Amino acid sequence: MLKTFAKGGVHPPENKLSANRPIETLPLPARVSIPVSQHIGAPATILVAKGDKVKVGQLIAQSAGFVSANIHSSVSGTVESVDVVLDSSGYKRPAITIVVEGDEWDSSIDRTPDIKTEINLSAQEIIKKITDAGIVGMGGATFPSHVKLSVPTGKKADVLIINGVECEPYLTSDHRLMLEKGHELMVGIQMLMRALNVDRAMIGVENNKPDAIKYLTEISSSYKGISVHALKVKYPQGGEKQLIKALINREVPSGGLPIDVGAVVHNVGTAFAVYEAVQKNKPLFERVVTVTGKNLAKPSNFLVRIGTPVSELISAAGGIPTDTAKVVNGGPMMGKAVVDVNVPVTKGTSGVIVFPATESKRKTESVCIRCAKCVSVCPMGLEPYLLTRMSQRMMFENMEHERVLDCIECGSCSFTCPANLPLLDYIRLGKSEVNKIVRARKN
Amino acid sequence: MDNKFVVSLSPHVHSGESTSRLMFNVVLALTPAFAVSLYYFGLGALVVTLLAVLSCVLFEYLIQKFILKVTPTITDGSAIVTGLLLAFNVPSNLPWYIVVVGSLFAIGVAKMSFGGLGSNPFNPALAARVFMLISFPVQMTSWPLPIESRLKYIDAVTGPTPLSILKEELKKGETISQISDQIPTHMQMFMGLMGGSLGEIAAFALLIGFVWLLYKKVITWHIPITIFTTIFVFTGILWLINPEKNADPIFHLVTGGVMIGAIFMATDYVTSPMHPKGMIIFGLGIGLLTVIIRVWGAYPEGVSFAILIMNAFVPLINRYVKPKRFGEEVKRNG
To answer: pLDDT tens digit string along B233-258?
Structure first.
């Protein structure tokens, strides 16, 4: 029996079309737009002005507080504008637009392909490097990584959990990274272990990636304390709380964090970025992005500079299919539909999916038949049908009582609803109202 | 590239499950039982079932179109299921006008007057069955005998059901061993060879439907298995105390409406609880009430009443019995 989490979950069609496509480096675009808010927390403070020359890896916006992250230039060239641009959230937000000239890297970055396995830095030095490099959670949540590594006093981590689950359908960027950058990943994990002062790390990988499980298991024997675990395929196993439950059978308390049960979770993409930042002195300015879709000519995995327009990725994957009616940044279960394909790739862009018209529109809603499928698939043990009715009637205090803030917005309820009800839409609305109530109460 | 994309919140994919697919699977699951009743009751089963399904669908259409003035939703299949279940719960020689009146009650009163699919507190087919039982007690309790009446409808040869034999004879002071020759064997009853409502008789066919519903994940095991277990244990205790005055637990499981009630009626989505803990309480209540009515009540059979009574408790169960939340039973260590 493979391990998995206990409560709820769904199994959407996997559609991992690009699983066998090696990571290719995308050619440099003509210009990039780098938003200064690519992470959860305060937007970074802009350090450059129009006309400035920048190099690849140069700090162009500085972290504005503890929960914030540095932003580096992903290209060399001239700053064309510092203005607002439309990002994948659908809002116009401050961004630095740079016209690409050549590809001149900051001299401090080690560009050799050698894998450096020696670690001779202390925990503080590692965390400092991670902070400086602007690393955020690469699975899509984009929470600044150094915050997770700074364990609050009185709490203790005893295990590092590495998320190689990639439970979202379509996405394969983590899968390719595990296959192609295994050793770098292992070194990155060891550095995270040292930063947290833990002696064991567990990599969780869903069983639909047997090649990655086999390869990582083979090489993990030469890295002390790291083990690889095959997990039963079930969405949303990549959710922190679900992954912790699956691997070490601990339940993060309601309203709590993984550290409350002695665990810290990082994505494989993050571990790779940590390797590059610490061993190669390379800030986070590029990432692997899956570009995929059923009608796309060449579903691919690209190594992309941050700020590259999504349209460039789609062109490189064979061009946008004529029947495309929706483009999603991220996975199909939790990603965001974009209004425009010129939005830039950010640190949290794990994939770009183009959907044909036939799969773009929601089906007609009918009435709730109280089938209870939403209740049985909810991984948090909530009652989506009830929360939805309360949200429709603006009963926000009742929603708080029914633990709406525990909702991880995985979308399993809406996915499974036979009446096609937009359950998660209503729950999100209620969640934001409840958050307002909670904040008002604190003040 | 134009930028007129569809923008909606996640998730962007859907399971493809729909109300009509679920209902279609319920219809499929009822097919074996219908086939058996065609074999045993022939013409009567065909006439009553067709009539009930057509009337239910027609009444739903007419009420939605002309009274409520909304777009009719007969394609969701729920009226077909109601019609089938209504037919399965009445004798196969029931006069046509009673079938039509019963269908009107099921759809018009028990379903539409409460707001239609999803809003009715009581199972429409069962509410209609009880309405017919009270209004037409004679016609509703004359049971055609299987096989003998295949080519007959109204004029079918009738006889008592095992449960009514049990009730009557025990009332007269007879013991179980004295009446055993009047009651079919367990195997005969399991195969449906006894008097009864047209779709309730064959336990084996209904169990095939149960397996199908579980396989297709239309329902979960909780309600039916809890009902079976409760009835088995409760009647088992009574039987052990006095086997001459109480029928054995297997008899109780294979007779009357236990199978169809537990598998198809009690699991009706709209009128049953929303999560496993509540479903088990619901099933327990149905099992207990069924046995209480059968053993001590005035009616020989109690499944319909038991389910309807427990239907009334569903809002209360949903309100006070909550699923276990993730992270509920752990304390934060900070």
So the answer is: 999 999 999 999 999 999 999 999 99
